[in-house]
Amino acid sequence: MKFSLKDQIDRDIRRYGGEILESSELKKAYLQKHHNWSTVGEHSLRVAAASLAICYALRKVHIPTDTSAVVRGSLCHDLGILGRWEKYSSKKETSRKHPADSVEVARALLGDLPEKTSDIIERHMWPGGHSKAPNSLEGVIVSAADKYAAVKDLVEGSDIRHTGLRYFLRRRLKK
After folding, report:
1. 162 falls in which pLDDT band (50, 70, 90)?
2. Domain extent listing, the chain
3. pLDDT (tens digit, 9 = 90+) per residue, 3-41?
4. In Å, how far from its chain's centre is CA 71?
5. Cα dist. 57→51, 61, 67, 68, 124 in Å?
6. 133: Cα within 13 Å, side-chain hemisphere
7. Per-residue pLDDT tens digits for 133-150
8. Is 33 helix (H, G, I), strand (E, B) or coil?
9. Cβ neighbours of residue 69 under 8 Å, at least 6 residues apart?
10. I need a labelling partner for 53 at 20 to 30 A (CA). Which of 9, 16, 109, 144 fits?
């Protein structure tokens, strides 16, 4: 039986991230805005889905990846940002501190957190800010998927979606 890509992604997210999906933290994540048009929860699922799609593509060319670490790292990478307006004084502080806070949330949810998963979460802001480069291929995958999902989050609810990129840019350049 062959699964569609969407079915494969759904299956692996549930298989490796089931306890995270059922957590009160992820439920809270659906209530907090993120990237203007999305929520932390929606964004985290988009990062997990994009990361898995990359993993499946790499598998086709015989490059193995740790799917469990990718799913868990993706789902937890921004959970430390919850309550950001009370925790952090600026966007810069949020950007710098939420990765370490996300590792702590992941440890509370999952108990023993493998080094690779911790590294994925802690270094997901790379190449931006003050983040160091990930120590694994999986970390690079999640970081790239995070940037892709963030752009998608920003565009999804914007004028680009409704009017087209050319019109949107023309309007912005006139301002």
Report:
1. very low
2. 5-174
3. 788 899 999 999 999 999 999 999 999 999 888 778 999
4. 9
5. 10, 7, 12, 16, 20
6. 3
7. 999 999 999 999 999 999
8. strand
9. 114, 116, 117, 120, 136, 138
10. 109
113: left (phi over 0), alpha (psi -120 to 50) or beta: beta
Q: Which of 100-109, 121-130, 147-156 has the lowest mean pLDDT?
A: 147-156
Q: Is 5-174 assigned to CATH 3.40.50.10260?
A: no
Task: Output DSSP code: residue 131.
Answer: P
The 10 Å Cβ neighbour count of residue 109 is 19
Q: With residue 101 as reference, give the H or E element that holds it.
A: helix 91-110
Q: Are 138 and 124 in contact (CB under 8 A)?
A: no
Q: What is the distance between the alpha carbons of residues 40 and 18, in angstroms, rounded to a whole number?
A: 17
Taking CA atoms, 17 is separated from 22, 75, 90, 106, 157, in Å, by 9, 7, 31, 11, 27
Which residue type sits at 61?
A: V
CB 73 within 8 A of CB 100: no
